[in-house]
Design brief:
single chain; 116 residues; 7-stranded mixed beta sheet; 0% helix; 53% strand
Amino acid sequence: QVQLVESGGGLVQAGGSLRLSCLASGTTFNFNAMHWYRQAPGKQRELILAPRTDATQNTAESVSGRFTVSIDNARNTMYLQMNRLKPEDTGVYYCHYGDRDLNEYWGQGTQVTVSS
């Protein structure tokens, strides 16, 4: 059974940093098919980062230059390093995985709150 578990959220002041983790289990993961999403209060969930095995990443403009994704294959974990956080980065952050059979899996989310 595929499971994704996010951790690392919390309350931080604007300008600060947080690192989120997504621990994956239950299958052999293709990290090309893993993504970070964010859902801000009152808004739809949006894709913000998708890692690629060639070390590039697809990044939403709103987080470009501030957020980076990395992968630890040995730990089956994807990380989201968030720097220079802004109040508009507040929201629930989700890890997502789509397998080759088009099944989609989501973690439970982790809350990030950035105070001004």
